[in-house]
Amino acid sequence: MGTAQTGEGDGDAPSLSTSSQSFCAPAAPAPLTDTGKVGEIGGLGKGVGEALASLSLPLSVQTELENVLQCSVCISTVVRPVSLGCGHTFCKVCLTTSLQRSKKKCPTCRAVCHIDPAAAKENTMLANISRVVMGSGVYASRAEEADCQLAELGEQLPIFFYNSALVPGEMLGLHLFEPRYRIMMKRIVENGRKFVYLPSFERYSAKEGDIGLVAELEECSEFHDGRWQLGATMKERLRITEAWVEDGTFHLWYCKLERIRDQKGENETRTVDSAKRCLAKLNEAGDVGVPVEKPQAAMPALTAANAESVSFWIASRLHLRARDSMQILRDTDTVSRFSHLMEFLDARIAHKRAEHERAALRASERQAREQEQEQERRDSRQANLEMAGGTAVASPAVEGSHGVSSLSLSQTDRPIVLGPGHPLYHPDFRGSLPIVPSALAWGREEGHAEEERGERPL
Description:
alpha+beta; 4 domains; 14 strands; Lon_prtase_N_sf; Archaeosine Trna-guanine Transglycosylase, Chain: A, domain 4; disordered N terminus; two-stranded antiparallel sheet; five-stranded mixed beta barrel; Herpes Virus-1
């Protein structure tokens, strides 16, 4: 779904919901001393905040600071301040709510801003000054309330679709050239360096309940024509809670998401034992020749706390099919994931061993055929040697595939010619037997006709 419009003029800031107004209500003024000045507030750290906290400011200065630090959306001193490129600063929760309805425009000047306020870094200097003006206790209370509202609003990230399923810990190299992904790269480089990696094999669209991964940029570079080359690491699993296409972005999808965590098992010993059995099965698979990838990173320490990471480390080394990878991502029980991995490894090991057995059988059959052919060649050579001592004649018999059923060796003045293709022909005897172009023919002498002998030519 697209981003909703506010229906207000460009010069007016969008109105907030009742819940946002209740959160952003003006805070009570800081406690005053008997001299009418702000008391000292410690614990602000070094910098401007510490310097202001060490001073006693007149009430007029405090009022002026409150006006300068006022958020134009909630009309109160900023909490968790976030500054835009245009120079205006707002509360993080106010900016998040506003940008959801104003098509990525600054609530004050309506300048376009490509920023995810929920993931944006706070302006630390302004936050320290606000803490001085409001008082540490009041600021901490409002900041805690803001964090709760941000959690309710949910994190928003752009979506990158790809027809391959990965698991946490794997790395991905990409070369992006589509206009929507060029916009995505400019936004995430400026803010957060994170995006959603969503496996999609048909529709290249997102819906509630889809499973994906949070991808974090490791390195990236932009070419002169706007293309991007990047390397990203898959981090956490996620489930999409809401998805929409943002207007004016060449069909770039955005989504709200929730992280997926494994359920903590009661029996930690069972979890570690499952991990050990799965690692042993992985080593066995490598020994029998199952393709196993080299690890992209060192294996996490084998403890109950790291069992989830170990399971994904094992999965990243296997050539999993898409449906197997998606099953691994959906599992929220670590022991169940190890069981699925061992089932996959057992199937691959059995398949590889069957391949070895078939290969051994084929080799044995090939060797037997070669021995049989060698024996036939020896028999043929022996027959030709025996034939070289006499002359082959045709015995009157039933015709076979070569015109006669058999040949006998006898002394006669009418030799036959054995040409290539005859069972008794061998090139070693070309000099001892007369050769004519025909495959097999009777030798003729002048005055001797075939009809007189009553013999048939071969």
